[in-house]
Write a structure and sequence with these properties.
The chain has about 200 residues and is mainly alpha-helical. The protein is built from eight helices and six strands, in the order ββααααβαββααβα. It has one domain. A hairpin with a 2-residue loop joins β4 and β5.
């Protein structure tokens, strides 16, 4: 189970906000340490056949429609679980502090279906690179893409129960992995900066 509230080794099986030890310039993906440069190459959403397929799906097709529906179903299920979690889920103060990953000392990890869902709803051209330690969609302390926010954003709450959040994250990740399998998308577990920058070609 992942502890969201104290420094810990990142859990490569969870796509969630998790505190991590300070090791500048390095990521873990699938349990293997990589430099940030290597990870950006591995997570690039342009330039290889698999990534081109993902971008074509975002551009529009029947498969794309079904994929978006599946992700929307996962998010709806997740929001209901968080709602029913009561005190364990925590009460968000909408302060935006957790969007400052460096200041809050944690990182957000996302999967391809989540990024594809965001791109499909915002448009490819509106996918912003992440050039600092703060989420580029945090505007004046508020989430500018709240309706389409990632699963980790829906789960994490600074005053929530870490075990509850960890269990929920495990369940969500299995659902997202199943979407990757269903639509033959290469599963990748990426920190937000690498994912956004790869998609934006930065």
């Amino acid at each position: 189970m992942c502890d969201l509230f104290c420094p810990a080794v990142p859990v490569p099986e969870l796509a969630l906000l998790a505190r991590q030890p300070c090791e500048p310039g390095r990521l873990e993906q699938g349990g293997t340490k990589m430099s940030r440069h290597q990870s950006r190459q591995a997570l690039q959403l342009r330039g290889n056949k698999k990534n081109q397929k993902e971008r074509k799906m975002v551009a529009g097709s029947e498969a794309n429609r079904r994929l978006l529906e599946r992700v929307a179903e996962v998010y709806k299920w997740l929001d209901l679980q968080a709602c029913h979690g009561g005190d364990m889920a925590g009460a968000c103060k909408s302060c935006g502090d957790c969007c400052d990953f460096e200041g809050f000392d944690h990182r957000l990890f996302i999967t391809p279906p989540e990024l594809m869902y965001l791109a499909a709803n915002l448009g490819d051209e509106n996918i912003k690179p992440m050039l600092s330690g703060r989420c580029p969609y945090n505007i004046d302390g508020k989430c500018g893409v709240y309706e389409y926010r990632f699963s980790g954003c829906r789960i994490f709450c600074c005053n929530g129960d870490a075990d509850f959040q960890g269990r929920l994250s495990e369940e969500v990740l299995e659902k997202l992995k199943s979407i990757c399998t269903e639509f033959q998308i290469s599963y990748r577990y990426a920190d937000l900066a690498s994912a956004l920058n790869g998609f934006a070609g930065v």
